Automatic annotation (TrEMBL):
The lineage of its organism: Bacteria, Pseudomonadati, Pseudomonadota, Gammaproteobacteria, Oceanospirillales. It comes from Halomonas lysinitropha. It comes from the Bacteria. This is Carboxypeptidase regulatory-like domain-containing protein. Residues 1-21 form the signal peptide. Keywords: Signal.
Length: 864
């Protein structure tokens, strides 16, 4: 199998020159940023570019998100509109590098503006001069924090809708109501493959040893289900590690008939952790659940786990603060277990870093009040599992919504403890009362031991407070192993909030304390404090941990610093101890510099004082285009030397084109869509032989603009889509070449699957405008009248368009496609204003785009 992997990669490398020739040239570094205004996430991902020390943001997309009336036309190199009021006109011209603000024209440095096919990208420094905004980019957390220096229309709308106070709510995006597109499962599909070939040569203790390893992760449809396969083998351990999983996911809960399941899986999988009883562990098993796929794994805790290619690491951020860091385990997976959720905002970001300099971001938001089960809803999850040591587990958990703010839970858990299986039963209840979340639970073991838990969660002055107490009576589990001096009580207090740093930014702070009291009266107290900040393009996180176990007191700390200087990224970490033996235990510093178009150089140095030992490292990577490549070298002052190289290729097949696509970034854990856009001249929704494909059409994905554009065949490949959740793909009307073109359907809603390409067809039709004037006839005098509401009905008597007449009575109904219609004045308004009209007008619209003008209507006071 290892030789087969080498052969597959060798075949791809034969075409490497051709693949490299297709890679984009001259591209600055691309970033994907989350956009946040106040407490609302406006977009989960907008593109941005790093050019030297400047960050360039998309002017048109940013204006759209913030409801600033500026439209960008990148093909023409211009942008126009106004800022908050029409008196503050805005005009940008790239040809002469000038901008006009409220009638005043000035020039700018053209190097700070970049025209791309999707938008005009402008440096932050210029945007802050032109717009009433303060823009702060958290490079470590890949987020853009916007502070409005003047009230924006969006802020007023969010306040009206009450979204401004709902932390974590993506207030900038609303469900557009697109029709659902169902993608049938296939018996077999060509999979997406993420594959890595690694070679290494080490000289250590006077011996030289080499190794080579091949790893592949495959996803796709198999036997009518989602499938994944992980394979890894090396020269030193030729017996391959194989992990395979089959299953389905449906956020609408339509799986397995009356069970209304949202997910089921079998094969290689991890068990969920059970609070106070068992940890999550990998192995083989089957799991079934109807719980919402986007809800936390338990009420006040969330576990993050997934597949991770070799050499990758992942950082977990909580409300902007760095929580932890991990790398792939032996099974090619990562796991952050039981991350606590607080009352209020719970925003998590997973930032993945690849060995070749790649970056990928996933974000999640879990408002705690949305974790409650709705009244009458019954949720379940059942797992049967056997770990790699042959120990079996059964986990069955159930929740029932009793009232709007009251949820009951129960469970049966069979788990090993010290080699013996133990059966546990659980009961619990949780309620929201005013600004409090109160919960209580009881765990009863078959051997007679028990555990009672009480907890409260609230917010006090902007600080989230979580407090809990456990009472244990002869209780043992994986988390509370048997002891001659067992724990009898455990108290936990957690405070999460932020402190003001500047007028624009705040410092996230977390303080957590746990106190255990044992049967003998001995106690142990653990306290941890974490402070994070981002100032002057520098990210800092300091963590302190203090433990007092009666006869021993110990304090350790860790300071992490990262800063971007022009096109160089610097990272440092200091681990230290405090107290009578306070000292620095280790230091590490790394630098990463962009050399050119996707090529990077890295240098690093790390020193451990206890050994003592100093290690030096250097590397060169390529992470853009069709494949990724990296070489690295390491040297230790003990004489150890290491040389290595890594080749990464992600590949997937687009069946519509019968063509393989290659990428330097992983794709197996994502979905894709092949979208065709065409001019539907006969209005049948199907592309005919003589109908024209539309080139250059763009798309929105969940409200944000995507960089994909249709080619000469009218086809665009929209890749790296999130999976197992609803996703809205729509036409970006601003990219259609003819202003009279309009999509027959604004977009489609789908649920992307890993390793699967969804085919979408979006017909575009020629539209026309209907215009005319509404007159008020009163006492023999006829004059135009404004604020009259008009409705356009189709042949099914459905209202398809509404408009309102202007002050002089003139109206326009834009974007009307071919068909038969009836135009009328709103009957409700006629009744409310005590008016009568001259009746509705029948219209027939052809497909030639000709305007229909002079459709006048008359209203008059109703007879008494």
């Amino acid at each position: 199998m290892l030789a087969l992997g080498f052969l597959l990669l060798a075949c791809v490398l034969v075409y490497a020159p051709a693949l490299s020739a297709q890679e984009p040239a001259g591209e600055p570094e691309l970033l994907i940023l989350e956009v946040r205004l106040d407490q609302s996430v406006l977009s989960g991902a907008i593109p941005a570019y790093e050019v030297g020390e400047h960050t360039l943001l998309p002017l048109g997309e940013l204006a759209r998100l913030l409801t600033i009336a500026i439209q960008a036309q990148p093909a023409k190199g211009v942008a126009s509109g106004f800022v908050l009021s029409e008196e503050r006109g805005f005009s940008l011209n790239l040809d002469n590098a000038s901008v006009t603000l409220a009638g005043k024209t000035e020039s700018f440095d053209p190097a700070l503006v970049l025209a791309e096919p999707d938008d005009i990208y402008v440096a932050v420094s210029l945007l802050e001069e032109w717009l009433p905004l303060a823009l702060e980019i958290d490079r470590a957390g890949l987020s853009l924090n916007v502070t409005a220096l003047e009230a924006l229309p969006l802020q007023a709308r969010l306040a009206r809708e009450g979204l401004g106070d709902r932390a974590g709510t993506p207030g900038g995006y609303e469900d557009p109501g697109y029709p659902h597109h169902e993608q049938p499962y296939r018996l077999w599909s060509m999979p997406f493959i993420d594959q890595t070939l690694t070679t290494e040569l080490q000289h250590k203790n006077g011996r030289t040893q080499g190794d080579a390893a091949y790893t592949a992760f495959l996803t796709g449809d198999l036997l009518g289900m989602e499938s994944s396969l992980y394979f890894s083998s090396s020269q030193q351990a030729p017996s391959p590690d194989i992990r395979a999983t089959l299953g389905r996911h449906d956020p609408d809960g339509n799986l397995l008939g009356p069970l209304h399941a949202r997910s089921f899986q079998f094969g290689s999988l991890s068990t969920p952790s059970v609070e106070n009883i068992s940890r999550g562990i990998s192995g083989e098993g089957v799991t079934l659940s109807n719980r919402p796929l986007t809800r936390p794994t338990s009420f006040d805790r969330q576990t993050f786990e997934g597949d991770l290619p070799p050499g990758w690491d992942v950082e977990l951020y909580y409300n902007g603060a760095l929580l932890g860091f991990t790398q792939a385990d032996a099974d090619g997976r990562y796991r952050f277990e039981d991350q606590p959720l607080s009352y209020g905002r719970n925003d998590f970001r997973l930032i993945f870093h690849g060995p070749l300099g790649e970056t990928r971001v996933e974000q999640y938001s879990f408002p705690l009040d949305q974790s409650m089960v709705l009244p009458g809803d019954f949720q379940y999850s059942v797992t049967e599992h056997r770990d790699e040591d042959g120990q079996s587990r059964t986990i069955a958990q159930f929740d029932l919504g009793i009232a709007r703010a009251l949820t009951a839970s129960a469970g049966l858990i069979r788990a090993p403890v010290d080699g013996d299986e133990t059966l546990y039963s659980t009961l619990g209840v949780r309620t929201f009362w005013q600004s409090l979340s109160l919960g209580g639970g009881l765990v009863q073991a078959k051997d007679g031991g028990s555990l009672a838990e009480f907890d409260v969660q609230t917010r006090i002055g902007g600080v989230a407070v979580d407090a809990s107490r456990l009472l244990l009576t002869d209780f043992t589990s994986e988390l509370f192993p048997a002891s001659s001096d067992p724990i009898v009580t455990q108290d936990t207090l957690r405070l999460t909030g932020s402190l003001p740093l500047t007028s624009r930014s705040r410092i996230p702070v977390t303080l957590e304390a746990t106190r255990d009291e044992r049967e003998s009266g001995r106690t142990r107290t653990d306290v941890s404090a974490r402070v994070s900040a981002y100032v002057y393009r520098t990210s800092l996180t300091n963590t302190l941990r203090w433990r007092d176990s009666g006869d021993l007191e110990h304090t350790t700390g860790s300071l992490q610093v990262s800063r971007r200087v022009r096109d160089m990224s610097l990272r440092g970490q200091v681990d230290y101890q405090l107290g009578s033996e306070g000292d620095i235990s280790s230091l590490a510093l790394s630098a990463e510099k962009t050399l050119t178009d996707g090529y990077r150089g890295t240098l690093g140095i790390a020193h451990t004082f206890a050994s003592p030992e100093t290690r030096y490292s250097a590397g060169f990577t390529k992470n853009l285009g069709r494949f990724g490549l990296g070489v690295n070298a390491g040297y230790a002052d003990t004489g150890d030397i290491a040389l290595g190289a890594q080749l990464f290729i992600a590949m997937g097949r687009d069946d519509r084109r019968a063509d393989w696509r290659f990428d330097a970034k992983p794709m197996a854990n994502t979905g894709a869509a092949s979208v065709r856009v065409f001019l539907d001249e006969d209005n049948d929704g199907v592309m005919g032989a003589n109908e024209e494909p539309l080139q250059g059409a763009g798309f929105t994905v969940n409200g944000g603009r995507h960089r994909a554009r249709t080619d000469a065949e009218g086809i665009a490949y929209v890749d790296h889509l999130p999976v197992k959740q609803h996703l809205d793909i729509g036409i970006d009307n601003a990219t259609l070449a003819d202003p009279q073109w309009a999509p027959a359907i604004a977009g489609l809603r789908l649920v992307p699957r890993p390793g699967s390409v969804t085919r979408l067809e979006i017909p575009v039709r020629m539209t026309t405008e209907i215009d005319g004037t509404v007159y008020l006839q009163e006492e023999g005098v006829e004059r135009g009248v404004g604020d009259i509401e008009l409705e356009l009905l189709n042949d099914q008597q459905e209202i398809v368009a509404r408009t309102t007449s202007s002050w002089d009575g003139f109206y326009i109904v834009p974007g009307v496609i071919t068909g038969d219609y009836r135009l009328r004045i709103s009957p409700e308004q006629l009744q409310r204003l005590n008016l009568s009209d001259s009746g509705s007008i029948e219209l027939s619209v052809s497909g030639d785009g000709a305007f229909i003008s002079g459709i006048n209507m008359t209203v008059s006071p109703a007879s008494p």
